[in-house]
User: Fold these one by one.
Assistant:
Number 1:
Amino acid sequence: MAFRERAFPTWTRLTTINRRATRRNSDRGRLLQTGTFICGAVGLDTDLSFVYQLFALLFCTLVFARLSIRVRSPEVSVKRQLPKYATAGVPFEYLITVTNNGHHVERDLQALDNPKIIPPDLAQFERMREPGEETRNAYDRWLGFHRFIWLQKLNTGISLKPADVPDVDLLSHAQAIVEATPLRRGSVYFESTTILHPDPFGLNYGATEFDNQEHLTVLPKRYPIPRWFEFKSGRHFQPGGINSTWSIGESDEFVSLRDYRDGDPIRKIHWASSAKRDKPVVKEFQDEFFVRQALVVDTFGNNPAAFEDVISVAASLLVDRENLDGLMDLYFMSTRPEIITAGQGHAQTAQQLEALANLQLTDRGSSDFVSLLSEQARRMSGCLMVFSGFSEQQETLLATVENRGVQTAVFIITEKNDRTAYRSDFFVLASGDIEAGLKAI
């Protein structure tokens, strides 16, 4: 433990140095540096070999190439054009616009985006395991450096490829296409953009860095839900009718006009008709019945891998039911119990997905969450629930809803070797094999 605590800062510095060295040298330059080193070692004895002359030539070439990139830096500006959302694990492309503000045509430039590097802390390092780590040798497993690199990439959240910039004419601009792959859900933060310009021999790159802070929201990974999956939930009485989903206050569905009766609210008077008939006329309304489904996401537990599957299944169900009539309420526990409603007059499904993208495990008590479900159960036409396992805590959440007569569909995320006997109407999905499990339901 003490060794790893001391090694963590060193590992962070090593990865930073390696990243900078990789950027500053081309493949050709690294090959020439290796050749120079070999010639220097072989040509130490100048009486036995003339290799020292080749060493001198290569060394002078490297020095000249290194000095030449300091003579002139490209006079450009950059602008990143990110999409609004990306999806974890799904590659996408975006543009970096490079504008030439100088007096020379800029050629052979490269654009590198710099996300915020987030190294793991010791607690995360001890808690999580690199996929396939068991196949590494004993020394690598003890040292843990490969796990550190994997966690740092995962925390950073995105993998980016260098982008070649087309030639940029005077007072013009060009667009570089950056290929990116999000590695996790949540927010990815960009700190700067680096423009690389080569020396005349193409051995080294000079780097000009531009402050270019921005963030990208990465939505959870989603899986297709089989077409034959149907969650039958009947229509349910909703106080105020469906019009209340886009109005403030009581606003039911308009049915007809009728004469005013004592006790009718003034706000229901239809003034135009009252003026024509020369007596008060009021608008008559009726309440409506419509579908209002709920999706309950389990945020309690201590298994990060299973929790990621819970989020992915929940996101898949939201997208699958996005275009159905009625409303969808997303229930989850963060620092407090929360509900996000999507449908006519409310948020869009994208906002629910964004909430899932930033959701984290919590160890807060579930009593407040149980109270919320108990209070809101009367509004539910049906309830989808996604759990990681089925402990007493999850059983309480399910009973809270079912005891009020709400029809449920429960998805349980389990370990692959789990042999627990669950209820026959549960949908049991093995962690790490969610797509195949959903296809089989």
Note: The chain has twelve helices and 19 strands.
Number 2:
Amino acid sequence: MQLSAKDLWTRLLDDALRELSEQTIRTWLEPAAPISLENGTLIVGAPDQFAVQWNESKHAAVLSRLAEKAAGQPVSVVFKVQEERTKRPQMDLFVAPPPSAAAPAAKVNPSAQPLNERYTFETFVIGKSNELAAAAAHAVSESPGKTYNPLFIYGATGLGKTHLMQAIAHTVIGRLPDTRVLYVGAEQFINEVIESIHSRTMPEFRRRYRADVDLFLVDDVHFLEGKEMTQEEFFHTFNALYEANKQIVLTSDRPPKELPGLEARLVSRFEWGMVADIGQPDLEHRIAILRKKAEQDHLEMAIPDDVLRFIAEHVRSNVRELEGCIIKLLLYASLKHKEVSIELAREALADRIRPSDDTGAPTKALPTINKVQEVVARRWGVTPEGLRSKARIKTLTVPRQIAMFLARDLLQMQLVEIGQAFGGRDHSTVIHSVDKVARLMSRDRGFREKVELARMELQPQT
């Protein structure tokens, strides 16, 4: 019996579970819908052009192979934007749209912090480390309150969480000018709860946060840890908005399950929709970020491409520091009355870049963070995966601290960068680990010798 487009697509979604993760299917395939099955081609409608490009590049080959098995004959799976979607403006994350009239002003809740006009999808640079979060944010902006609710974005400081969050707001406002937006930091929410209790104005507080909001954006929800009374209010605010199909977007420096001072009922709600992380950008991504910054501020002629690459190679922590290097370099060039060059950048950013060999001798290759973890794990009888895990058992804690110490000492990595490489730990944990190993080395000769042997194995080779 000939399968219909709907029947074949249903089978594909079931079969795909054996090859793709459940989250991938929920994110990319379930929002799509079969359109037709003719001449060996299954046409599937996706919500927008971004979803079409993503599914074509990531999933079409797998689905076509599964479709051939299900249908008993060759079938190509092709994605296209659903017809009703093509009649409204699209937000293409890869191509800057032509200049248009300014977006209408939003109906901003009096409690809200102002949005940054530069934080839009057009100015957000996508790379491997943030593509899932960017795609989820884009999907939310197209269908607020329907696609992923809540959207929970987590990652280290300065990687673009707030940028993506506010980009959602700008896009929604552009399409739906009457949207009531409330963007606050968790600390502001905490302070307002305390103030409302003291002034006995809780009914007014609840009205502002629950009745007068269509799009609720909360930055840094990890600050809610341990604040029991505030968590109670946040829980009821979350429920009221969620049940009214209002979109909720949250950011944090850690995923929900790693927020120890947060009530279990909040953790479970934060995981109801989509949880997406943003990681450290790789070299190509850092170069693209710097180029976008230069274009945005019309600095293409002021900063040569080789200088941008030089900065990207030496500054690896986060987007905010990359942008700070551009500002500092331009200021330094202005004060010195010199043209921007690699030599000037090396001079201006001496406190931020890693030492380089200017003698012309062959460069010694530094070990990678993975190599550090591998050597330490082998010498201390654990696994590299254990060092990167969230486990806090004693057999892993000491070698993990040693690996952090060596990463800081040998590789001169940023604290945030080291924390990300060891299961997303924060910079304070890294500082504690480095200090503890240094103290132990000063007191325990045997311990010091063992660490030094690991260091010798990791010394750069020519």
Note: The domain at 107-278 is CATH 3.40.50.300 (Rossmann fold).
Number 3:
Amino acid sequence: MSADNPIFQIEKQFGQSIWMDNLSRDLIQSGELKELISNRGVCGITSNPSIFEKAIVGNKTYDNDIEAGIRAGHSVEEIYESLVFEDIRNACDIFKPVYDETQGLDGYVSIEVPPTIAHDTDVTIQEARRYFQTLERQNVMIKIPGTDKGLPAVEQAISEGINVNITLLFSVDSYVETAWAYIRGLEKRAAAGEDISQIASVASFFLSRIDSKIDDAIDAKLKVGMDNLDVAAKLEAVKGKVAIANAKVAYQQYKEIFSGDRWQALAVKGAKVQRLLWASTSTKNPAYSDVMYIDELVGPDTVNTLPPQTIEACADHCDPANRLESNIAEAYQLLESLKDPDIDINLERVMAELLSEGIDKFVKPFESLMSSLDGKVKTLAAV
């Protein structure tokens, strides 16, 4: 462990946890995951259908287990779950010492319910319950999308003592609804006389996708032949800045919600705050710093989840400082400036489109994975 590694500074000095957005059996079996915990300060992990598609498709590491599933007469869906659940359980076991050392603050491994059920509350509740019970790990988090249909499932899952990672949050309003769903779930559980001190939740707020979408809209406006230099300057001024401003405003809402009387009534019973988690943090535009979604959002009681290449970039050249609460007035002003007729970007519509696209970005790799797995099952069964 290197004390001058910026990731350790972020965690020890500024109270932000660094999790990794990646998981595969190779990572587990090679010992690399343990090394990332020791040498890179990774203290949690998230997965999604896209990650598992990359991990499983074309990887012979899983073939023996697939063949065992074929011999047992399991369906493709059952084989998929057996592969993924084994990886999740093993990752949970590797992170258990972190979970114990931090008294349940960190050491979590997130697994998403099938994205195809994102708009079905009852099925989401059933699957979250089944995943949590089947995995049998204290430090597993079930990922549920922060859709209108997903949030009632979040509330119910929390009330049943299930750790939940609410994913695909883009707008501040959606985040606020998510925080209250968590609080209602805890209140329901506490009213039933159940312990609420062992439940953990994070609200995953997506970043780079916001800037990518808004930057594309701005570039389209600039291409139209913008000969008004003042208007062009206004447009350029918001490029690459909306996601961070949006996250800073969300954090102000977090502070307000988790300091009020309603929350304090739960806190005295041992409830843990639902931390904001910064997701989609790999910078898509090469013109921007590859660690800007880390450096600009370091702050207490938060999580930043990074893909492997961003972890290495941060370990190399992050510049940790408590910036999450700097330039707050400017953040509000920047979001307000989108309404300027010269800029004319409807943030609410952008966020709604991003949520719809986000679900699709998980559904497509999930369906692709199931199709590829079906092909592999047929190939191996014929041998």
Note: The chain has one domain: 6-208+242-325+352-382.
